[in-house]
Amino acid sequence: MYDFAYQKPGSLADAVKVLSGDSEAKALAGGQTFIPVLKQRLNKPSTVVDLAKLGLSGITVSGDKVTIGAMTRHADVAANADIQAKIPGLAYLASQIGDDAVRHRGTIGGSLANNDPAACYPSAVLALGGTIKTDRRSIAADDFFQGMFTTALEADEIITAVELPIPQKSSYEKFRNPASRYAIVGIFVAKFAAGVRLAITGAGQGGVFRQAEMEKALSANFTADALNGIATPSDNLNGDIHASAEYRAHLIGVIAKRAVAKAA
């Protein structure tokens, strides 16, 4: 690691002040991506701003929405009775992230801010049509994810919570890398009265994305058979040592059917 200063502010205002006053300062949430990046000397922050004392964890249900604090850990999302009852797909997703150690340190806000193209949470928040709350505004999920490791966040902006509409049905399935457990292809499907939203992670060159043709078919008939004959072009999909773009295109069809069958 390079040398850096370390601060652990006791308020959101103080954390924002440090970040806005130093363009090289970086926020630390759970650290499951950030710490390895520091160890590999891929990032050289002047100051690491630890968000642990800001009180940004917790899960609440109000009306037809679930709100999850940004510093809520994956293990807490997975074990929460309200999440299990209201959005079971999200509880299952959280239970499948990394290993036990990662799930007890990693946070939903950190995952969303990082927007790794193979991370699980972006698919859930996008499929659910969620809203990302920050220290200064609310950002719709459709506007938040802007490409690989890229979001609508400003450099000194901090995610405070995620607000998720409660769907009629939800499910998540992924074909995971056996070592890292990142999604080679992961699919979250959410059925609402107004229609179905389906988001794919792990496969797109630009990160998480929605599959409009599948959404249209499932909105008319929420069964796995409705996806018969629907192909996802491989042109804009990832190809690497783990899977070719063509194989990922095939997996999208297979995993989408599994997700819908589980939800239905």
Short key terms for the protein model shown above:
Uridine Diphospho-n-acetylenolpyruvylglucosamine Reductase, domain 2; 2 domains; 25% strand; single chain; 264 residues; alpha+beta; 5-stranded antiparallel sheet; 4-stranded antiparallel sheet
In short:
With 264 residues, this protein is of the alpha+beta class. Helices cover 33% and strands 25% of the residues. It has 2 domains: 46 residues, 2-Layer Sandwich (Uridine Diphospho-n-acetylenolpyruvylglucosamine Reductase, domain 2); 205 residues, Uridine Diphospho-n-acetylenolpyruvylglucosamine Reductase, domain 3.
Structural summary, described in words:
There is one protein chain. The protein has 264 residues and is of the alpha+beta class. The chain has 2 domains: 5-50, Uridine Diphospho-n-acetylenolpyruvylglucosamine Reductase, domain 2 (2-Layer Sandwich); 59-263, Uridine Diphospho-n-acetylenolpyruvylglucosamine Reductase, domain 3 (2-Layer Sandwich). Helix content is 33%, strand content 25%. The chain contains 11 helices and 14 strands. It has helices spanning 12-21, 34-39, 74-79, 81-86, 88-95, 100-103, 108-114, 121-127, 141-144, 212-220, 245-263; strands at 5-7, 26-28, 47-50, 59-62, 65-69, 131-134, 138-140, 145-147, 150-151, 159-165, 169-176, 183-192, 195-201, 209-210. The strands form 4 sheets. A 5-stranded antiparallel beta sheet has the order 4-5-10-6-7. A hairpin with a 7-residue loop joins strand 13 and strand 14 (209-210). The radius of gyration is 18 Å and the shape is globular. It starts with a strand and ends with a helix. The mean pLDDT is 96.
